[in-house]
Every structure is written in C-alpha cells, then in structure tokens.
Design brief:
globular; Acyltransferase 3 domain-containing protein; Acyl_transf_3_dom; transmembrane helix; membrane
Length: 338
C-alpha cells in the first residue's frame, strides 16, 4: 500500500462505491413502481437521494487528482489498465450471460457488446470516464491558464449555467427560469473543474456544519421529489433531475469538502479503506453480477412489499459489496495491471 495516499480521498471513493451499490438497491427492487405515500417510502426516498451523489463524487475526484496532468504519452498510456479491467469484467459478464442466463449470440455479437459497452450492463460509466480521461489534460490547459481565483470561479459558474442550471430549473417551478440546453450533456466537465478548484484552493468546512448542511440539502431534495411524485401517480419521477442537477451538484460538493481533508490514524482502518478505494472500479463493474445473485434471492424468498424490504437494505447492499469485493480482490491478486 502506498504511503503517500490521501485517506480523505480514499474515504470519498470508498463511500462513493457504497453509494453506487445503495442506488442499485432501489433499481433492483420495486422502489420506482411503489407510490411514495407513507413515512417508510419517504425514508427510502431520503436514502436514495442521499446516495445519488455517487457518480458526481467520482467525477469531482477526477478533477481533484488530474489537475496538473499534461497531454503527453506517459499520461495517455495510463488508460490501458482501465481498459484491461473493463475487458476482464466484460468477458466475465459474457461468460455469465452465456452459461447461466443462457443468452444467445455469436462471436461477433459478443465482440460488438464489448466495443459498445453493453457486455457489462453497468459499464456506461466507463464510456463517460474514458472521454473525461482523454479530455483532462486539455481541460487543465483551460483551467490552469486562468490567472486569478475570480477567473476560475467565473469559468465554473459559466459551465454550471450551461449544465446544472437547465437540468434543475427547466420545466419545473412553473418554468419561472429557463436556460439553454444545448450544452447540458457536458455536466462531467462541471464536476471536473470543481474538483480542480478544490485541489488548488483547499476550502475548509467545519465538519459538523458540513454534515448539517448536507442533511438539509438531502431533506430538501426529498421534499421536492415527494412533491414531484404527485404528478406521476405518486411514484418517483426524478423531479429535481439526475447527476447533472444543480441541487445534486451542491450535495456532492458539500460532502466532498467535508470529507476530503479527514485524517485517520488507525493503520488497519486506513488500509481497509485504501483497498476498497483501489478496487472501486472492479467492485462497480462486477456488481452487475453480484446484484443479480443478491436481488434474485431477495425478491424470490424475502420480498413481500417495498415498505418491508427497507429492513433488508443494509444486508442487501453489504452482501453485494462483499461478493463484489471478493471477486475484485482475486482479480487484483492474479491479474495486476497497475
């Protein structure tokens, strides 16, 4: 384990992967089919909104860590380990789909599935990350050539107007505010530049204040989602938006600046957190298989209603986590790519 790792960043990455698996709980149960009309479903909505910052945290981490990277051969070669890990889990998923799920397809079909990122159903994020990785050195040229702090804040604000503002305001609140949507899809760049800014200026937040503000934002998101569900048969409707939403961006930034400078002295705890952080990509990619195992069992033997399934939230998430972690650790041991 490298001694120069920043445990605060490892905590963020470890939390982010747990948040991903938690969001998958709602995806793999009947949360989105169940009306949000009682306290139990309000709690589930609160948990779901609290965990939805998972991908934004990964994107912000990328900006934080890549801020000084330059567009040279040594940098671009670092994409190879990521592609190798992706290929490994794509082949593993294909094996599962052919042997267990009995899916049909010839050799060219599965090669195409690897190339178009459908072999592993969760690999959409790899498409996103590859693009951001390749752009990072050039985004750095934009960010680092701005001279003043004010200019860099201006850059971030302009990108937010192009991405997060339309994602949150357009079509909501009686359309009182409406922003152009042509550039909304570049929302990962918003998180990237925010990560660069945090990396450079190291903003400080009192931990208690950060936690309270975070809970307040998640509570506001929950209330808005409950309100928005009324126009969708009381079912969840992503009323405030997804990863590109301004409110979710605020939530992710609060969490990031509250946690990134944490320091833990216990060496055993730091080693565990660091290992989870190192294996986070593996855990994410293989969780498409572990989710199938866990939730197939859960729905078959334990599911009676979405309200009652909340009691199994923690066991389900940690079951798929430990299965995914075990497979990831084996891959890390026998196929070392970094």
């Amino acid at each position: 384990m490298k001694s120069d790792r920043h445990i605060g960043l490892d905590i963020i990455r470890a939390c982010a992967i747990l948040f991903v698996l938690s969001v998958h709980f709602f995806l793999n149960t009947k949360f989105y089919e169940t009306p949000i009309t009682n306290m139990n479903m309000y709690i589930q909505t609160f948990i779901r909104m609290g965990c939805i910052m998972c991908v934004p945290l990964f994107l912000t981490l990328t900006g934080y860590l890549q801020r000084n990277k330059l567009p040279n051969r040594s940098y671009f070669k670092k994409i190879i380990p990521i592609l190798v890990v992706y290929l490994f889990y794509s082949i593993l998923c294909i094996f599962f789909r052919v042997t267990i799920a009995k899916e049909k397809g010839n050799f060219l079909f599965w090669i195409s599935a690897i190339e178009n990122f459908t072999a592993d159903p969760y690999s959409w994020y790899i498409q996103l990350y590859i693009g951001l990785f390749l752009l990072s050195p050039f985004l750095n040229l934009i960010y680092n050539n701005l001279i003043t702090k004010k200019q860099k804040i201006g850059l971030i604000f302009i990108v937010l107007i192009m991405t997060s503002f339309p994602a949150f305001f357009n079509g909501r609140f009686n359309d009182l505010l409406h922003f152009p949507t042509s550039w909304r899809a570049i929302y990962p760049v918003s998180y990237y530049f925010i990560g660069c800014y945090i990396s450079e200026y190291k903003p400080k937040v009192r931990k208690l204040h950060g936690i309270l503000l975070l809970l307040l934002v998640i509570g506001l998101e929950t209330m808005l989602e409950v309100y928005g569900s009324s126009g969708n048969g009381n079912k969840f409707s992503t009323y405030i938006g997804e990863y590109d939403s301004l409110l979710i961006l605020i939530q992710a930034v609060i969490f990031f600046v509250t946690v990134y400078d944490l320091n833990i002295k216990n060496s055993i705890v730091t080693k565990i957190i660091s290992l989870i952080s190192i294996l986070s990509l593996d855990i994410y990619l293989v969780s498409c298989l572990t989710d199938k195992v866990v939730y197939k069992t859960l729905l078959k033997y334990f599911y009676t209603s979405q309200e009652k399934i909340l009691l199994l939230f923690i066991p389900a998430v940690f079951s798929t986590f430990f299965l995914a972690f075990s497979v990831s650790a084996i891959r890390h041991k026998i196929i070392q790519v970094r």
